[in-house]
Design goal:
The protein has 377 residues and is mainly α. It has 16 helices and five strands. 45% of the residues are buried. The chain binds carboxymethyl coenzyme *A.
Length: 377
Amino acid sequence: MASSAGNKTTESKGLEGVIALHTGICDIDGQKGKLIYRGYSIEDLAKNCTFEEVAWLLWQGELPTADEKHHLERQLVGERPLPPMARELMEMTPEDVDPMAFLRTGISTLALFDSEADDPSSEANFRKSIRLTAQIPVLLAGFDRRRNGQPLVRPRPDLATAANFLYMLRGEVPGEEAMRIFDTCLILHAEHGLNASTFTGRVIGATLSDVYSGISGAVGALKGPLHGGANRKVMEMLADIDRSGLDPAEWIRQRLTEKARIMGFGHRVYKTLDPRAAILRDMSEALAEERGNRKWFDMSVKVMQTMEQEKGLYPNVDFFSASVYTTLGIPTDLFTPVFAMARITGWTAHLLEQWADNRLIRPRAAYNGPQGRTTKR
Ligand code: CMC
């Protein structure tokens, strides 16, 4: 602790190791590689739950009863239709726009046409959490179809969030294995404590701003390559390795000699294997086997082994998501928006928690600029 202008302060670059608040939503043990949502291990939830059940768990603190689950699924289906202006936005957006920039603007656009946007009641905030979870996939699939000159695909009420997204993207219902794997991906990406985007959302929420402002800010933070933007960079790297014709180990060693950061490795909290990466690795292999194409999976394993040998760094959630999403036919630049499509549940759970016991979040900066200047000559 140091003293600054009469206030007690403590300093940590990048806020590493700082406890900024208490939460009952998510616990991470970075030494043991454990991830817990509301008391349940990620392995248990990934194996035994659907994305919708996990969303309810994050928002409400308990897994839903059969009735609650059914009701939530119906609400999500009912909230899917977009306001006309959101469809116009898809038409107007240039084809080469980064889908994360489209999503950020799309969320702001949805706010303009939600009569509850500025209703701060917990009931309205919960309804908006469900609405955004329902509408983000529709927005993203529509954007992708439009930029490819394809007609929009209407959502199917009999399909859950994961399956419906793949359906709207490609115009055909995915197979059972693809549906289940993608649903699990959404569970794995739904929540992760006070990461950069969630912190951003909570900082905005703590000013008593609104859900849409908090979520647009969170999307902006997720876009960066040190956070959610890494999954897209991983696939670009795998494609570069493929084009180079080099052995993946050799390619990585060369990049490390140039002091490059290898995307999809390292983590502020995990000092061992990210448990989500272990689940994604198994799913990536299962998909590769099912599709009879092990190219991206085998290359990823070689990269992983080299990073462990050379740097002692393990893959994070973004690393094996790249090969999984590519095998599922998701375009590379949609990987980070897909992350947002899942994380909307964690972000909104954190906003609801923030407002249940709010205090403005306002750290200090240590001034290191010039002193004692005067404009008098
Ligand atoms: N490749 C090469 N070196 C690395 C990497 C990496 N991916 N990650 C960390 N290092 C090195 C870094 O160069 C530094 O070495 P030195 O002390 O010799 O300068 C040391 O490890 C510590 O790095 P740091 O940047 O101080 O650590 P951090 O806790 O601030 O960063 C991180 C965490 C995730 C930003 C970083 O590991 C990284 O840049 N990884 C690549 C991007 C990535 O995969 N991001 C996704 C994060 S997890 C999912 C998500 O939140 O979206």
